[in-house]
Structure formats: structure tokens, C-alpha cells
Specification:
Layout (H helix, E strand, L loop, with lengths): L1 H17 L2 E2 L4 E2 L20 E2 L5 E2 L8 E7 L4 H17 L3 E7 L4 H10 L5 E4 L13 E2 L1 E5 L5 E6 L4 H13 L6 H4 L18
Parallel strand pairs: 1-8, 5-6, 6-7
Antiparallel strand pairs: 2-10, 3-4, 5-9, 9-10
Helix pairs in contact: 2-4
Length: about 200
């Protein structure tokens, strides 16, 4: 009996260790646990994302838009609470903002069933089928990346956030116009003046 109890305890410890942490209290993580600046902040976004509906997306699909990339899984309650706030952000800012919810569940069927029953106002990406070289799958959920209109990662949030916290991050990014590409700032060459016929009698 004692041996069985020990085995059960060890099994539960193993399950707990392998389960991602789900955190309802959000905070911005611009620094790592050692107090150093998170190296991902300020980096240009790079990814090839496979979506639940079979699309392939890259940063080119979101040029000039504010982008949120949020990591979640179906059983994560704080993750699901964020979805309501994402819907409100979409209502407030419309096409100026895009949101990708990167699902980390191992099975597609569970994700599809959840989305079918709970339609969401964001693109559902499949983490295991996507290539996101700037970050790895997080250990704390939700983990949320905020990308400005020029494609740079400006904030990293961990844990659930309320709408006011999210809007405080997003509003300045929406207000800031994208930097015009260099080639677009080169003025066009002036048209040469049209040649005119000399007036009669003029030498």
C-alpha cells in the first residue's frame, strides 16, 4: 500500500511538472528573470505560421498593422478570458489591429471542436506546425507578444491581462504611423518641360 501511494505521488508530480503553467495575473516581461532586458524586445518579427484553416502567413500579411501574437491552449482558463478582450480590441480598432492566437494543444481535433463551438475574432495558428524563430513555445500561459506597425516586437506579456491593461499597450501602437519604406520617400523625378514652338517672327 505504501509503495502504491509513493508511485501515485510521483506520478502526480510528473504530471504537474509537464503541465504548462496557466497564470491569471498578467505582467509585462520586458526583462528576463535575471533582470536583464529580454533580447526579443526590439527585434524584427519573423515567422511562418500555419493556421487552423490551412493558410500560411508571414509578416508580409500584416504590413502596416499592429499585431498581437498570443499563445494559448484550450484548457487554460486565463487564456480564454483574454479572448473577450481581444474581441473588444477588434471592435475598437477594426482593421488597424490583427490578432493571431497560437494554439499549443497537441491535437488539432480538440482545437477545431473548441473553435467550432466558440468562434473567435482572431486567426488561430497551430504552434507545432509553425516556424517562429524569434521565440520558443512559452512555459507560462498566456504569453502575448505585441508588434508595432513596422514589425518590431515592443512588449511581451505573461499571464492574463484585463482589457484596460491591453488597451494601454495597444493604443500608442495604433496611434503611431508606420515608418515609410525608404524607396517610398524618394521623390519622383520631375517631368521635363514640354517643348514649345517659337512664336512667328521670333529669331
Amino acid at each position: 500500500m505504501k509503495a502504491t501511494r509513493i508511485v501515485l505521488i510521483l506520478f502526480l508530480i510528473m504530471i504537474f511538472a509537464l503541465t504548462p503553467a496557466c497564470n491569471g495575473g498578467g505582467k509585462n516581461k520586458d526583462t528576463n528573470d535575471a533582470g536583464q532586458k529580454d533580447p526579443i524586445i526590439g527585434k524584427k518579427i519573423e515567422f511562418t505560421i500555419k493556421t487552423l484553416d490551412g493558410q500560411t502567413l508571414t509578416p508580409d500579411n500584416f504590413k502596416g498593422k499592429v499585431l498581437i501574437v498570443d499563445y494559448w491552449f484550450v484548457a487554460c482558463s486565463p487564456c480564454r478570458k483574454m479572448f473577450t478582450h481581444f474581441a473588444t480590441l477588434r471592435e475598437k480598432y477594426g482593421d488597424d489591429i490583427n490578432i493571431i492566437g497560437m494554439n499549443t494543444d497537441p491535437g488539432i481535433k480538440e482545437v477545431q471542436n473548441f473553435i467550432d463551438q466558440n468562434p473567435q475574432p482572431f486567426i488561430v495558428g497551430i504552434a507545432k506546425d509553425s516556424d517562429t524563430p524569434l521565440w520558443k513555445e512559452p512555459s507560462v500561459f498566456p504569453t502575448t507578444y505585441f508588434i508595432d506597425r513596422d514589425g518590431f516586437i515592443v512588449y511581451k506579456g505573461q499571464g492574463g491581462h484585463d482589457f484596460e491593461e491591453l488597451d494601454k499597450i495597444v493604443a500608442p501602437l495604433i496611434a503611431k504611423a508606420p515608418t515609410a519604406p525608404m524607396e517610398d520617400t524618394v521623390p519622383e523625378a520631375a517631368e521635363p518641360p514640354e517643348e514649345t514652338e517659337p512664336a512667328e517672327g521670333a529669331e
